[in-house]
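Appendix B.2, paired examples.
Example (i):
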Amino acid sequence: MATATFIHDGNTIDYTPGSDVAVGAVVVLGDLVGIAQRAIPANTLGSLVLTGVFDLPKATGVTINVGNALYWDAGNQRVSLTSGSGLLPRVGNAVAGAGSAATTVRVRLNTGITDYTPLTPP
């Protein structure tokens, strides 16, 4: 029988970028989205945060409500309300509303979640 070995809590993961990564940069690894808490020089081991609440850029003219699912638009370096036909990775949920004039939105990261099916009690 296979057994699991605990490594760590998973709030961060190791990451070695091919080019410099600035502090606060949003990094997309497939369906996983992390944020650099410190600058990471190219080809140097660093880490990405996968949990927490962050203010992320958003487009003006877009209103975001508390609880909205948000996706990372890497091309425009901002959150989006739509998944771009499934091409944009889920970055998290809004934990504060952001009016149309706002340039940022407060987001609780819950990356890597593409579908959620609640457990049915026995």
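Example (ii):
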Amino acid sequence: MMTDIQIKGLEGLQTLLDELPARIEKNMVRGGLRAGAKVVEAEAKQLCPVGKTGALKESIHVSMRTRQGRISATISAGGGKAWYAGMVEHGTARHWIKPKDRKSLFLAGLERKVVLHPGAKKQPFMRPAIDGKASEAIETFSAHLRNRLAKIEAGK
């Protein structure tokens, strides 16, 4: 699940960034993206349902990537112990559970060849976090850039 947020009307900012050395520009944008993504990450952790282990909440994190000159921030959940993140976010349909490498399943003290799982109700936490905090994330991004630009201007 990926959502790209496009920001328009930043021509003046681009002019200032063009005047800066590429390394400083890259670090500023990278820091601003991380700061904005952290806002959404915090909201996702707040909205995340917590089970017995809390592994799903712990798995929510921000990662940064630069590819072909394009910097991106990704907020993800799952992996490792919390492989079920997508099932929590989107829910599951009713389905049959069959043993993979045994003849039967042992459930509630009874031996079964197959079990009908009723499905799981969706409990979205990532999408509402993005929807609810997108504008605050953009504000955080621009505030980070303004602060960095002010420091650079003061140093001249």
